[in-house]
Amino acid sequence: MDVMEKDTATQVNWKMNDAFILNQSLRNDALAVLENTAFPTTRTEAWKYTRLTKIKNASYQTTQAIELTRTVGLDPNAIKLVFVNGHFNAALSSKSLPDGLKLIPLSQMDPAELMALGNTTENPEELFTAINTAYTTDGSYLHVSAKVNIEPTIELIHVSTGEQHISNIRHFITVEAFSKAAVVQHFLSENATDCFCNVVTEIAVAKNAHLTIDKLQEAADSNHFIGTENVKQQQDSVFTINTITLNGGIVRNNLNIKVAGSNCETNLNGAYILKGNQHVDNHTVVDHLVAHCNSNELYKGVIDGKATAVFNGKVFVRKDAQKINAFQSNGNVLLSDDATVNSKPELEIYADDVKCSHGSTTGQLDEEAIFYLRARGIGEHAAKQLMVGAFVGEVFEKIENEAFLNRINEILTERFSWNID
Fold this sequence. Notes:
41% strand, globular, alpha/beta, 10-stranded mixed sheet, 421 residues, 9-stranded mixed sheet
């Protein structure tokens, strides 16, 4: 980005020199946003508890593809697309696909097809979406044909490596009518320092389609991440997303769901287990536009050290969206006196025949329960582990992908010396 106007997003010391692949009209619109938009501050309501100074003041640069020294992936039977520093890595990615699935990196798409992508972007004025649109280097086009059940998991793997590299990645996921698919988005690092990964995913779930996304964030704690999922559901569809954050510096997850068809089911689950100076911010919006739908939202956090967590979940129920059941819950446990959480679940209801609830709890582990366990010969660390496991286990129980769960346990053992069954 070149310096354009004082206090706009263009006034950063980022070297964005690469082949950016979204169509030029979209890029021009995004660049105009950057020239007229300031970086959010704590005076910006949506970013009130998240400071972006480390990202704004960094000297990020794009980089060409770098080969990895090891294989990546959670499930050996999964279909994989691997991206390293924002570029497709063919050597580590799957070569064959089942019938009914089109999965291709954007950098290998036909130019005419590529030109058509991106026109359904939600919130184009949002700063990090604009940065992504202007500077996308690669990503994926994932399309499941109608009446197809894709049995293998599809893994979209994002690796950061090196120092002060920025990755802007765009994914397009469409599951056609009466189809089913499960996708993993996995974010990790390999000898990476002060890197920044900015990912936007546009998702369309058609009539009677089922899509599950399991999202695992485990990049090193000097690396930052901002991810945005924009989802649109049609009639009778089921969309589930499980977001698990176990490492990273500044992590922000924006999840925007428009429930545009009747008889839909929407499930949002998340767990964040933090320590050190880690900061994780989950912002969710579920917008019920029509009647007869259910949404369920469960986020739980365990915060230790000087780590901070933010949860802001908002549910809209529009005037014509009668017979809506919408439930939202955020629970947090603080393991140290210096840990902090800011939680704000919200309901905005314009219909009168609905069942909606929201709640937020923050506290410490029950000392009486710990004493009870210790009195029965269980050590203090093991007692706390059991209680933490019971607390966040409600989220993990909603995850069906065994390889995904196994990796969660590996990280918890490595990072926290925990084993949560």
